[in-house]
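Design request, tokens follow.
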């Protein structure tokens, strides 16, 4: 179905042709009636001619001749009216045939547009909707009465009128804009072009909307993969180059402590040595986390019950959540889920990290919601918070190593979570708005092979 404005011009044409046919028929009936009168008059004239004297028959014969000519002219009028009626009938049939062809063409165009996997909307020059296909009505949740309304009334999430105004400055198909629709964070990409008549005059606009959520997520994953390339070898080199001097430094600090114990100045030096030792310990911990992040070790695969695993992490998070005034909700699946072939410890680490991040996003309380569902070949875990969301300008950097907005954070938490999920051939994505953030972890049920990284 392709919704358009209704046009009633065809009805007017049909009424006009029907009226002409009725007039022709009425004229034909009147003409035949007049011919019948002519025939009666001719019969009367002939009867009078036979009764008149011979010297008076000339005028009667002229009258009879004139009546015969009038009868012949009436025959021509009848033939003309019959030809006109036939012409109108042929014209009506031709009009009906053209209307049927036009309806077939419109139906075909409508079927084609309705079968497209993108939204097609046409507007007039004042941005009033003149047509919309079925995909557009489903995507935007528009109703049947949307035809004839302003384009911005189709959806509160899409400022299409502003997009059309911006497009007017360049009028190029390369001008696009991405909109985020709904709580699920679907990404809709809009393009625009002119709608012209046969004479090339602009009569409106054609808007095309496509759901590019999966494409955007794939592009983001590719960018992440590019950022991770070479990180493993770099981590190994840094770990080797820093760890060895750090170990030597730690040894010499220990020897220095032993020598200073016999010195009278040891009381002044010991606090400084304690600071040095503390900082070396911290550097060592950072190196270990960096190594864990860039590690190429194989997973220790085993059968994992994901629901039980999540429940354990929820139980661990509840005490801290209660202290912050956070309500934790875990929506259990309605039917049993299959086990995963996964690394139990790494999935525990991922889930706990996501829980902690969600609670840190709600310092003044809120709600932490966890759910797990099954698709055809994967399990999907959603972890949602009711915080203030991730700022738009920071969303592309969330999974970057060493990116953090916390004063005491290392910036490796989410990057490590993403790496662990990718090692399981899964994906970790998120949707964020001013009402909160939802992280979505998708894990395949069947572990086919391990990724190299």
């Amino acid at each position: 179905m392709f919704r358009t404005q209704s046009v009633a011009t065809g009805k007017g044409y049909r009424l006009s042709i029907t009226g002409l046919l009725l007039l022709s028929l009425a004229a034909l009936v009147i003409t035949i009636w007049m011919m019948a009168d002519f025939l009666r008059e001719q019969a009367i004239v002939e009867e009078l001619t036979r009764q008149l004297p011979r010297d008076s028959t000339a005028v009667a014969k002229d009258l009879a001749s004139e009546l015969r000519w009038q009868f012949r002219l009436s025959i021509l009028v009848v033939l003309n009216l019959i030809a006109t009626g036939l012409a109108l009938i042929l014209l009506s049939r031709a009009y009906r045939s053209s209307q049927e062809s036009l309806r077939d063409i419109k139906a075909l165009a409508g079927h084609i547009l309705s079968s497209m996997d993108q939204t097609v909307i046409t507007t007039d020059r004042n941005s009033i909707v003149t047509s919309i296909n079925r995909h557009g009505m489903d995507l935007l949740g528009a109703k049947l009465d949307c035809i004839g309304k302003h384009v911005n009334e189709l959806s509160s999430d899409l400022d299409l009128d502003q997009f059309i105004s911006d497009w007017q400055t360049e009028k190029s198909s390369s001008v696009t804009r991405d909109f985020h629709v709904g709580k699920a964070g679907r990404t809709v990409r809009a393009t625009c072009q002119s709608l012209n008549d046969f004479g090339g005059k602009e009569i409106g606009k054609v808007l095309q909307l496509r759901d590019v959520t999966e494409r955007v997520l794939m592009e983001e994953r590719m960018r992440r993969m590019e950022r991770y390339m070479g990180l493993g070898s770099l981590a190994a080199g840094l770990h080797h180059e820093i760890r060895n001097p750090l170990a030597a430094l730690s040894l010499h600090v220990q020897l220095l402590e032993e020598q200073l114990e016999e010195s009278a100045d040891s009381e002044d030096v010991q606090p400084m040595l304690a600071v040095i030792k503390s900082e070396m310990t911290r550097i060592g911990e950072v190196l270990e986390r960096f190594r864990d992040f860039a590690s190429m070790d194989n997973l220790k695969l085993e059968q994992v019950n994901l629901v039980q695993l999540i429940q354990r992490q929820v139980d661990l998070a509840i005490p801290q959540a209660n202290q912050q005034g956070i309500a934790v909700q875990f929506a259990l699946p309605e039917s049993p889920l299959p086990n995963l072939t996964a690394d139990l410890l790494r999935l525990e680490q991922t889930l706990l990290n996501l829980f902690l991040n969600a609670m840190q996003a709600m310092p003044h309380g809120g709600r932490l919601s966890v759910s797990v569902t099954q698709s055809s070949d994967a399990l999907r875990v959603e972890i949602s918070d009711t915080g203030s969301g991730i700022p738009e300008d920071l969303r592309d950097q969330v999974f970057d190593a060493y990116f953090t907005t916390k004063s005491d954070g290392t910036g490796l938490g989410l990057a490590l979570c993403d790496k662990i999920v990718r090692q399981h051939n899964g994906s970790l994505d998120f949707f964020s708005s001013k009402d909160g953030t939802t992280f979505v972890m998708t894990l395949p049920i069947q572990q086919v092979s391990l990724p190299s990284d």
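Comment from the thread starter after seeing the answer: thanks! Confidence is low (pLDDT under 50) at residues 1-7, 448-453.
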